[in-house]
């Protein structure tokens, strides 16, 4: 229960109690909104502005129910606390949509009471838990990939031996046929298809059986620059522009250069494929100096690499499945590329996430520990 007090102790010299308390509220990292018993917003701190997307100018004096008409759960919590004086919390089901994106928040509503016990409104505390949801999703995905990897390893070993026998028999049969025989077309198809299956099996084995990281100092900008240089040549004749914005302060990091090259090449090639004949691919690097990979871990420095295109984007239904093995929207794809990318990032103790809007392109963000 929150109770209003009139004492001016602990205030800074020369400042009024109201100014002091306002400074305290504005400095709180969580969002704080105060709603009076008439349902009007009387206070909104900077953190609440950032979480909700509404400025203080928009919020103050406005009906909370009207401003947050899209967030029915939030409105019901505030109304119930105002009417009953009961503290209510919900850390699972509340989202804020006013920013244009669905943002999960943890919410607690406290009754605002005078010293006499009179309830004069509600204090709403908001905490952005987007990063917690991202971490939970990453853990679930890692668990699924681990199970699938074990299954894939057993399956690949069982298939690889008979597949070698089929390819060998087709090659022997081809040698027995005369040079102009029409049957040679069938043996060529058999050999080509067994080689395609063998390629898929090798990727499965790589997914299931890590070779171990070969760590060394890696210049990310050199790796990215070399890939972009080669891809510029590969798209000659197509109206595709490459933009790069690299943070020059990023030092070489300890990583496996070969695996990172494969990671970035796969993502950049996917961005190019999404554009078809025209568009832009943008690669950005930056440092996150205060990032926390898990809720109970200390904050650390991370390198963020963003690879974005302005293509048609990924449909929401497909976006949920892009990390799933064998899921592919390409007729020639194996559906293992992004699964292997996820695994490479996980082995580097990093994180990969994707954002996509239909008609506005796709952006992959890779976070890697800044370890020298």
Word description of this protein:
By secondary structure, this protein is α+β, with helices and mostly antiparallel strands. The chain has helices at 17-27, 46-52, 56-59, 64-67, 72-84, 130-176, 184-208, 220-234, 257-275, 316-319, 337-347, and strands spanning 2-3, 31-36, 41-44, 88-90, 95-96, 103-113, 119-128, 216-218, 239-245, 253-255, 278-291, 300-309, 351-357, 361-369. The strands form three sheets. Strands 1, 2, 3, 4, 5, 6 and 7 form a seven-stranded mixed sheet that branches. Strand 13 (351-357) and strand 14 form a beta hairpin. Helix 8 runs parallel beside helix 9 (257-275) and helix 9 runs antiparallel to helix 11.
Question: Mind sketching the topology for me?
Answer:
Layout: E1 2-3, H1 17-27, E2 31-36, E3 41-44, H2 46-52, H3 56-59, H4 64-67, H5 72-84, E4 88-90, E5 95-96, E6 103-113, E7 119-128, H6 130-176, H7 184-208, E8 216-218, H8 220-234, E9 239-245, E10 253-255, H9 257-275, E11 278-291, E12 300-309, H10 316-319, H11 337-347, E13 351-357, E14 361-369
Parallel strand pairs: 1-6, 9-11
Antiparallel strand pairs: 2-3, 2-7, 4-6, 5-6, 6-7, 8-10, 11-12, 12-14, 13-14
Helix tally equals: 11
Q: Overall pLDDT, averaged?
A: 81
Helix content: 40-55%
> Helix and strand succession?
EHEEHHHHEEEEHHEHEEHEEHHEE
Quaternary status: single chain
Q: How does the overall form come out from the CA principal axes?
A: elongated
